[in-house]
Amino acid sequence: MEYSEDKHKGSIKYINNKNDLREFLEYERVLYNRKRIYMPLFCITEQSYLWKHNVLLRKTEYYVNTGKRLRGLLYKVLLNRFRNNHLIQIPINTFDRGLKLMHLGPILVNKNVKGGKDIALHINTCLVAGGTNHGAPTLEDGVVVGVGAVILGDVRIAKKRCNRS
Predict the structure, then answer these.
(1) What's the maximum distance between 2 C-alpha atoms anywhere in the chain?
(2) Most C-beta atoms within 10 A of its C-beta, which of 7, 73, 138, 150?
(3) Distances (CA, A) of 109 to 30, 53, 96, 121
(4) Which residue range is the domain that position 138 belongs to?
């Protein structure tokens, strides 16, 4: 099945107000099996570390996108410290809601990557630009990137759709 280039171009939803932030966090809270949308103070399990990353990422997106400079700067610092400690390099505004990190470990994503809803990333994955055109990958809704995968260059990854009778 072929997809038109314009179908998913610019279809990523950004967090532009407090309701969008709540919607993203509530949607992802269910994926991480959390009771509340708040960031944990003390991380004990792997899932609590992953949830903390998502909360920091989404709050940074909110404060940067809404022009709140001081809080945006504060959350950028907190997010960068967390990223450097846990080797998770996911830039803001690259994935739509439903980003699920499966395990704590190295993940590298280029800032030009566009990811749809319900994307799952495993450890040791790279989504990077490559070649001579500097194009970055595009992931459509529902894609799972497996352990050790390297997606390089200007490619589009679509979820396989089955025709069942």
Answers:
(1) 55
(2) 138
(3) 24, 14, 14, 10
(4) 18-157
